[in-house]
Amino acid sequence: MGEVRYLKEIANKLNKESDELQGILSTVNKKLAELNLGLDVWCRFKSELLCKTGNGAWMLGYTKVQDDGWCIAVKEIEFRVDYVGTPEEEWHIEAESESISLLKAPREVRIAAAEILSDLIDALKEEAERGVKAIEKARKIADKL
Fold it and tell me: Which domain holds residue 23?
């Protein structure tokens, strides 16, 4: 039978861990800002907790947010899923909320975001590499003129 005292113990631990997570996310956010990437990148949450029934979910990204500048951010989306001749699903975003800083997001969103933070870092690296290649290609074209 569930007892309130056990709930109190886990609630205290959750609060402590959540405070520590906030510090971790703040540190990562600061380090990313120092890189001055200026790249807008988004990742889909994998957590079933944050994929609502129907066609709503959250996305984690790095973007410029009003009043917060470039930061790790989240936004809610509405989407439809298509299976275009393959077992892989393809998401089509039909509506999205305004992005907010992850540091201002609800606790459950911050916790779920922590699970895919490495995916966001990987996506930023890939986008930066893609940008460098595009600039190098443009430079070669300019040099040939």
Answer: 4-144
Q: Structurally, how many domains does the chain consist of?
A: 1
Residues contacting 47, CB < 8 A, separation 6+: 112, 115, 116
Q: pTM for this one? A: 0.82
The per-residue pLDDT string of the chain (145 residues; one tens digit each, 9 = 90 and over) reads 568 888 999 999 999 999 999 999 999 999 999 999 999 999 876 655 455 546 778 889 999 999 999 999 999 888 777 766 666 666 677 888 899 999 999 998 999 899 889 999 999 999 999 999 999 999 999 999 9
